[in-house]
Specification:
Layout: H1 20-26, H2 28-40, H3 51-59, H4 65-92, H5 98-116, H6 124-129, H7 131-137
Helix pairs in contact: 1-2, 2-5, 4-5
């Protein structure tokens, strides 16, 4: 329940009412981060309008088995990292840094790969900085 004075504006853009789809997909600031993450994979896209649409598109892509495991980490880490940043803004008064969010997502994906896929013999730094080369080798 929100009080009558509650701010319901998106904490990233302050231009629209916060909703699940706006916060995670439709917000222009978040959309830029999604775009950077897809560039990291050497892809471009037309962003789906909903979180469900993002997952449907993401699940529909074709990759080799090990690459697919890494690929599937990206939207989960992006959504979780966006939510954490949102809470830091709302509850701690932090200023949103969307460039940093994109880098945080990449590093967290790299951390997850290192922790859950021991057969991938690359450092987090190498995964983040040279993803396209790494994907060719695994």
């Amino acid at each position: 329940m929100l009080g009558g004075n509650a701010n319901v504006a998106c904490p990233f853009c302050l231009a629209a009412e916060e909703s699940v789809d706006h916060l995670f997909v439709q917000c222009p600031q978040i959309w830029k981060v999604w775009g950077k993450l897809l560039q990291w994979w050497n892809l471009c896209w037309v962003s789906p309008a909903t979180v469900v649409g993002v997952f449907s598109w993401w699940l529909g892509t074709k990759h080799r088995k090990l690459v697919k495991k890494i690929w599937m980490l990206v939207p989960v880490v992006m959504l979780r990292s966006s939510w954490r940043l949102r809470n830091e803004i709302v509850f701690k008064g932090n200023v949103p840094d969307m460039l940093e969010l994109g880098e945080v997502v990449k590093v967290r994906v790299g951390d997850c790969v290192r922790a859950s896929l021991p057969s991938v013999n690359y450092s987090v730094h190498h995964l983040v900085e040279n993803l396209s080369q790494v994907l060719v080798c695994i």
